Amino acid sequence: MRLIFKYNFRTSAEELNTTYTFKNSKEIITGHEQHRRISILKSARRCRNREELIRGRAILTFQNKLQLREELRTRWCRR
């Protein structure tokens, strides 16, 4: 699956200290983790390689990618 991002990424201290909860998920992550996952997905778009999604112990599942993309569309998208 190819992910296409056309978003402006804004980073502020308030956003990084915000806690996000994905819909249909019990997972709670902080803004730092959110932006880290965004960078992982952006790099995955460039390389289109599933192994490249792994950064350290971080593995984004397909469901997480869908949820994160939905989060990006609502929070960061500026057209």
Automatic annotation (TrEMBL):
Domain of life: Eukaryota
Protein name: Uncharacterized protein
Lineage, uppermost ranks: Eukaryota, Viridiplantae, Streptophyta, Embryophyta, Tracheophyta
